[in-house]
Every structure is written in structure tokens, then in C-alpha cells.
Amino acid sequence: QSVLTQPPSASATPGQRVTISCSGSSSNIGPNFVYWYQHLPGRAPKLLIQRDSQRPSGVPDRFSGSKSGSSASLTITGLRSEDEADYYCAAWDASLGGSVVFGGGTKLTVL
Amino acid sequence: QVQLKESGPGLVKPSETLSLTCTVTGGSIDTYYWSWIRHSPGKGLEWVGCIYYGERTNYNPSLKTRVTMSLDTSNNQVSLRLSSVTTADTAIYYCARSSGSYYPGVYWGPGVSVSVSS
Question: Which end of chain A has less Cβ packing within 10 Å, N or C?
């Protein structure tokens, strides 16, 4: 069971908007940045969002991140078929000596 | 253009030590943080640990007793050793670079598949 909780799946049709949640606690998301990664089968994960809401260069502005308290979310607008992938949130967790912890991942299906 | 490439044996026997290397081109390794992340079959991503300048390290507490990371600046390589492996260590292992934090950043290697089996 992951320290950060994500819904196992999400789905939407092309063009729609989808939001993926990530729930944590006061030892991880609360005081620390949240990062989001996209993972396509057979590919290396790709950094989508850093420091809660910043997009690295080259990431389309269809992807956005936000954080409130001990929860965070990733929103994708104008959904495309190529967005079908697994999405993971990550945060530093200060408990047990400190570690980056990932959510369990959300499988996004574009219908 | 920074590129990372993991290498190592595809098959390791239980109780043995897994050794992986991440070769970095297009930039020096001695001014960044370097993470190892793994993806086990049917599971999510797991952060293995991080090494940065001065060979400072921070390991996943659940793996801490078995993990060692090191830097080889002469060959621009980052190494991972995981001892006493079990089938639970079967995974695709990725190395990644980040700037000034433990979080994996923009640059990742393609990953190397490791199977633990007798």
C-alpha cells in the first residue's frame, strides 16, 4: 500500500478534462513539493509537473498541477489519445529517515 | 544533450548482489543529484535512493540495509549495488538526474530490466 493515495483508474473522452488526485499527510505532501510523472508502457517515466505546479520546458500547458493542504491534483485539459498512460505523484516524506514516496499510480484511459 | 544509459546483468540469483551502472554523457555527474527508481511488475514506481556531490547518499528506508550507491567521476558513471536480492527485487531499474533535490527530474535513462531467479 502506497504512502500517497491515488485512484487506480480514470477515464475520459478526447477533448475532455480529467483530474487525478493524490492524497498524503503532514509528513509528506503537507510540507513538501509534489511532483507528477507520466509513465507510458516500455518508456522511461517523464516529469510533467515539479514543485507542485511548475511545468518543465516542453510540457504542454494542457497539464497543470495544484496543491492544497495534504492533497494535490493533476489536471489534463483537451485530452488526447496519447495521454493514455499511468500517472504518479511523488513527494518527500520525512518519516522513517526521509525518502521520496510515490503514489500507487493512476491508469488513465482515453475512451 | 544529456543522456543516461543503465547497464547490468539481466538475471541475478537470489541472495546475490545486483550491480547496475548508469553512464552519463553530455554533462558531468559531479554537480547534480542522481536517483535510482524501480518499477516492479504489476506495481508502481519505487524510489530506491539518491547520491549527490561529495558522495552523499539518501536511501529508501525499506532498502537502506541492502543499498549502496557510488559515483565514478573518471568514467562519468553512477552505480547501484543491491545485496541479498530476492524475487521481490525483480524490476526495471531507472537512473535519473535532478537539480538540487531528491526528486527525479527531466533526464532519465531508458531503464534496464533485472530478473531475480535461480
Answer: N
